[in-house]
Amino acid sequence: NAGVTQTPKFRVLKTGQSMTLLCAQDMNHEYMYWYRQDPGMGLRLIHYSVGEGTTAKGEVPDGYNVSRLKKQNFLLGLESAAPSQTSVYFCASSYSLPTGSEAFFGQGTRLTVV
Amino acid sequence: KNQVEQSPQSLIILEGKNCTLQCNYTVSPFSNLRWYKQDTGRGPVSLTIMTFSENTKSNGRYTATLDADTKQSSLHITASQLSDSASYICVVNNKGSGNTGKLIFGQGTTLQVKP
Q1: From CA B110, how far away is CA A105, in angstroms rounded?
Q2: Whether A43 contacts chain B with CB within 8 A
Q3: What is the DSSP string of B43-102?
Q4: In angstroms, rounded to a whole number, what is the distance separating the alpha carbons of residues A99 and A105?
Q5: Residue B98's pLDDT is what?
Q6: What are the Cα distances from residue A54, in Å, to A75, B31, B110?
Q7: Residue A43 is nearest to which of B34, B102, B105, comparing CB atoms?
Q8: Cα–Cα distance for residue pair A60/A65, rounded to 1 Å
Q9: Handedness of CA B15, B19, B25, B30 (dihedral sign)
Q10: What whole-number distance in Å separates Cα of residue B115 and Cα of residue A108?
Q11: Letter string b/e over residues A10-48, b meaning 16 or more CB atoms within 10 A of that residue's CB
Q12: Which residues lie below 8 Å from residue B69, measured CB to CB, with a gap of 6+?
């Protein structure tokens, strides 16, 4: 049982380049999320999805776009990377609202923008 | 402002010793509180969940407490092991925020257990 899988695990980008982070879950969860984790700060929600074909903005959405074309996949895109987007990105999924349902996290993607 | 503050920021203990991590929150309205363990290079994994009516909950050598009146929670680790070395994150659910998935994360406490 793979759970939540993120690809890639590491990536270095030059300022202005674009990339897509892929998140896949095999638990048939409706809800999926993208967070970023920066030193000394708690995880912050970038975007989330409450079901296939839906997306919504979180706390820090600027500079990112997402898509949920299939229930099991949630993609995070950076159109023009900036050094401020250097961070560790975590995808998570849950069966229902994380208000009551446990969120399961991927192993993270460490992104460096130079 | 809804905030979750954890202390200490980091902690070093010897293997076999006990320790207690603290979490203070100002999140309102409150629904529940989770403690997560995050190993280096891995994603967080839930240890326990506390609801408003629960005071204590154990998961093996981990015991979480909650005082909803003072808005404080603690995570006590008994007889620490080297594998307990990790970051421990307190996460509070901001119920009724109208924003699906509104979890407030603390910055974490980094625990290092030395032999």
Answers
A1: 19
A2: yes
A3: --EEEEEEETT--EEEETTEEEEEETTTTEEEEEE-S--GGG-EEEEEEEEETT-SSTT-
A4: 15
A5: 53
A6: 12, 25, 36
A7: B105
A8: 11
A9: positive
A10: 28
A11: ebebeeeeebebebbbeeebbbbbbbbbeeeebbebbbb
A12: none
Closest CA to A24 of A1, A44, A58: A1
Query: How many beta-carbon pairs below 8 A join chains A and B?
Result: 56
Per-residue model confidence (pLDDT) at position A22? 97
- Nearest by CB to residue A99, choosing from B43, B44, B95, is B95
Neighbours of B40 (CB within 10 A): 8
Task: Give the whole-angstrom CA distance, residue A84 versus residue A67.
Answer: 22
Contacts of B4 in chain A (CB under 8 A): 42
In chain B, the largest separation of any two C-alpha atoms, in whole Å, equals 47
Q: How far apart are the first and last CA of chain B?
A: 41
Chain B: give the shortest CA distance to residue A87, in Å. 13
A15-63: pLDDT as tens digits: 999 999 999 999 999 999 999 999 888 899 999 999 999 999 999 999 9
| Distance from C-alpha of B27 to C-alpha of B93, rounded to nearest angstrom | 8
Residues 18-77 of B with CB under 8 A from A: 31-32, 34, 41-46, 49
